[in-house]
Specification:
Elements: H1 4-15, H2 31-70, H3 74-90, H4 100-130, H5 134-148, H6 186-226, H7 228-244, E1 250-251, H8 254-284, H9 288-302, E2 310-311, H10 325-362, H11 365-381, H12 391-421, H13 425-440, E3 452-456, E4 463-466, E5 469-472, E6 482-484, E7 489-491, E8 496-501, E9 508-510, E10 521-529, E11 537-542, E12 551-556, E13 559-563, E14 570-575, E15 580-587, E16 592-596, E17 599-603, E18 616-618, E19 624-633, H14 639-648
Parallel strand pairs: 1-2
Antiparallel strand pairs: 3-19, 4-5, 5-6, 7-8, 8-19, 9-18, 10-15, 10-19, 11-12, 11-18, 12-13, 13-14, 15-16, 16-17
């Protein structure tokens, strides 16, 4: 394709002028040359706009980093610095809640720049097609579609053209129509609601904090008159709370401290309700990026626990526990491991991009498409590119990943020994799960997802017999092996799958799980559902009997539902299809989310699902079809983790 510089040089040659001389009248640019010039200008304008948008985002991250650094919180500053580096390397948007507004502005500005580029490219596609430059038209269409895929389809609907023909004197006056103003962006109102909720939350917390500080300052002089020892302890508690916001575990000020905690909890509940409402509205307004940021902030806030203090009845407040040196070493090793994996991945992506650019210069459309597909497969599923030109880069990538995993495994071994010597067996077990994963998958570019309490792959090596029963080995650290009376295996999504045939003999049963009450949970599996449209079928669930308030993934009359014993059912607007699909449901103790093929399909209404150390049943209730890669977690996985399970499995 001809660049703008070449077109201008060609124009100068045609007119016989050069340098700064004004061109005399001469042959104009051909239609083909004008099309090339339009494409070059559109790309230049898009690059200029994106450079400005990215610079604004980096400036916002830098400002936030400076604010965090001033607080002296090293871990928080490192996290923001990592987000800045990830954005500069790959446009990965930062997850800090303080940057939600900046991220929203970035998304809006990027969408505007992309829309301008796509509309310009589509016009040039038509011109190239008319000129029979079909390869160039195809390349432009591919680029436009690649950009278009990042946004909703309605973004690229072009306004109808205005008829420039002037009205004749004898024409009747045109009918005046009032065009309603453009509908306001719903995200603006949602942003404003979140900002107001955060401001109210901060005001409530600060007011409660000021009240507790005042109570301490008034109590210390009175305590000094009665007991200097108690006054000294109150003074130490005041200093710790005023400087580091640390609440005492035991205190003579229990009533005041409890009042402060209740005020904080109420403020958190109000903010959580505002976040949940905003998430629903963002999803309805097709703003998934903003919904994801608010959801992450909600999850972090819900994990914050404020203990209720005990009444002071001991002479001294126990000192805070020192930092665990083993945990510090593990975190340091994990951070180094993540940095090494990111560097290896970026190096391979850079090589793919280099070869892509080189291919575009050759004009080989098939090669360009092949490299673009390889890049997309690597970014989406970590699938290494094939071909002779990629042998050395892929080998270097695999070597870097292997070395990073080996270094992390060595750190885990040392930590396991230390935890075992300290009789911290649960901590050693959790690390051993990750160590086994690294040893068995030396080239895997991801850590195992934490919290798995059940992993069933149904591969032949996981099937065994005990006490005249067929057992299916659980690959999680819980070793909660399943039982089935009659087993049939078939080719699965990965390895073997279990084939169930609407029979009690083919129901897979696990005695119990550690999930009780409304504890968070996640269920994920690959499913090929061949149950008839009129037949209800519960293909996996926790709970047996309505008194246990079942939590089941269910299909009925051709649609999927989250089943809670009739009175607590929620439809997910998803039809049953006779093909392999990955389904997952998360529950955070308040509301559930149903995922299809790694992406959020529906956020269900808040509800309490109560279970009592209930069994897991797979294939109960008339299910017919294939099931593979079943996983149950004792926490609600994030969107990114669900996507990892979908892409890479749970082995």
């Amino acid at each position: 394709m001809i660049s703008r510089t070449i077109v201008l040089a060609l124009a100068a040659a045609l007119c016989g002028c050069g340098g700064g001389d004004a061109p005399p009248a001469g042959p104009p640019l051909t239609e083909s040359q004008r099309a090339d010039l339009a494409v070059a200008e559109a790309r230049a304008e898009h690059a200029k706009a994106m450079a400005a948008v990215r610079a604004a985002m980096v400036e916002a991250i830098d400002a936030h980093l400076a604010t965090v650094a001033q607080s002296g919180d090293l871990d928080a500053a490192k996290a923001v610095a990592d987000q800045r580096e990830a954005f500069k390397q790959s446009d990965k948007l930062p997850s800090s809640p303080e940057l939600v507004d900046s991220v929203a502005k970035f998304i809006t500005a990027r969408a505007a720049a992309d829309r301008g580029l796509v509309l310009s490219l589509e016009k040039s596609v038509k011109v190239y097609t008319k000129l029979l430059r079909l390869d160039d038209a195809s390349a432009l269409r591919e680029q436009a579609n690649h950009v278009r895929a990042r946004h909703p389809a309605e973004l690229f609907v072009e306004a109808p053209p205005v008829d420039p023909t002037p009205a004749k004197p004898d024409d009747p006056p045109p009918v005046t129509t009032v065009t309603p103003p453009d509908a306001p962006d719903p995200a603006v109102a949602i942003d404003a609601a979140i900002t107001a909720a955060r401001a109210a939350h901060g005001k409530t917390i600060e007011s409660a904090r000021a009240g507790l500080l005042t109570a301490y300052r008034e109590a210390i002089p009175r305590a000094r008159e009665k007991s200097p020892e108690i006054a000294t302890r109150l003074q130490a508690e005041l200093a710790a709370f005023e400087k580091d916001r640390v609440l005492p575990a035991r205190t003579a000020m229990k009533e005041k401290v409890v009042a402060f905690i209740e005020a904080v909890r109420q403020a958190d509940d109000d903010l959580a309700s505002a976040y949940e409402a905003a998430i629903e509205k963002y999803i309805a307004a097709e703003r998934p990026a903003r919904a994801s940021l608010v959801r992450d902030e909600l999850a972090r806030m819900q994990q914050r626990l404020v203990p209720t203090p005990e009444t002071e009845d001991a002479p001294e407040t126990p000192p805070p526990a020192p930092p665990d040196p083993v945990e510090q070493a593990i975190n340091s090793a994990r951070n180094a491991h993540a940095s090494q994996l990111a560097a290896a991945r970026n190096a391979l992506l850079a090589e793919i991009e280099r070869q892509y650019i080189a291919a575009t210069k050759t004009g080989d459309l098939a090669l360009v498409k092949a490299i673009a597909a390889a890049r997309e497969a690597f970014e989406a599923q970590d699938e290494k590119p094939a071909g002779a030109s990629f042998i050395a880069p892929v080998r270097a990538y695999r070597t870097a990943v292997r070395d990073a995993n080996a270094a992390l495994a060595d750190a885990y071994e040392e930590a396991i020994k230390a935890y075992t010597k300290a009789d911290a067996v649960p901590l050693a077990d959790a690390l051993n799960e990750e160590l086994l994963f690294l040893r068995q998958n030396p080239h895997a570019a991801a850590r195992p997802i934490q919290g798995a309490i059940l992993i069933l792959t149904f591969d032949r090596e996981d099937i065994y017999y005990r006490k005249n029963e067929i057992r299916i080995r659980d690959r999680s650290i819980k070793h909660n092996d399943a039982r089935i009376a009659k087993l049939a295996l078939a080719p699965g999504k990965r390895g073997q799958a279990v084939e169930l045939a609407n029979s009690q003999q083919s129901v897979i049963t696990l005695e119990k799980t550690e999930i009780e009450g409304n504890a968070p949970r996640t269920i994920a599996l690959w499913l090929l559902n061949r149950t008839g449209n009129g037949v209800p079928a519960a293909f996996i669930g926790i709970g047996d009997g309505c008194e246990g308030r079942q939590f089941r993934m269910h299909s009925d009359h051709g649609n999927y539902i989250l089943w809670g014993c009739g009175a607590h059912d929620f439809g997910v607007d998803l039809p049953v299809r006779d093909r392999w699909e990955h389904h997952a449901v998360t529950y955070d103790g308040r509301s559930a989310r149903w995922y299809l093929n790694g992406s959020l399909h529906k956020h269900l209404a808040p509800h309490n699902y109560i279970t009592v150390n209930s069994p897991v049943l797979i294939g109960a209730g008339g299910f017919r079809g294939l099931i593979d890669e079943v996983a149950v977690f004792n926490r609600a996985l994030s969107d990114d983790e669900i996507m990892r399970v979908f892409k890479h499995g749970v082995r």
